Amino acid sequence: MRLWREEFSIETADERYVTRRQFGRFLVLTSLGMFVGNLWILARSLFRRSAAPTRRLIGIARDLPPGTARVFQYPGSEDPCLLFHTAEGRFVAYTQKCTHLSCAVFPSHDGRSLECPCHDGLFSMEDGRVLQGPPPRPLPRILLERRGDEIWAVGTDPETAA
Ligand code: FES
Fold it and tell me: Residue 125: phi, psi to the nearest 5?
């Protein structure tokens, strides 16, 4: 037998053998990692909810004739939303992420609804409620405030917030 084999006493057949203690340690460390990850997600979502709603200028009314829409980001820079000027002269805004699987929604040709092209979801332009398809919840509505010609986003409707 070679000299190094004598000094290095682990047999090749035993290298793949995992003891109960090693396996238990692996399970405990993996569970601990998942627990810490979940705590971090929970803390982040609580912090987001408790933060005061942001106010942001999102459009100028005269630049948006009836029947047109504008995309803006609210409340964060990675939260796309849609501001729409209805044929009746009202301004409405919703998050642009479908409540089914987060595809982007778009105003329909007649401007009376918001369509999701992924699975034919349809939302009411009036209040964001689901009219058709698989979306489980209404579209979260962005609260608006008018200051002269300026349109401001001032929060998310808590009744429709995810
Ligand atoms: S992602 Fe919108 S209907 Fe499925």
Answer: -70, -25
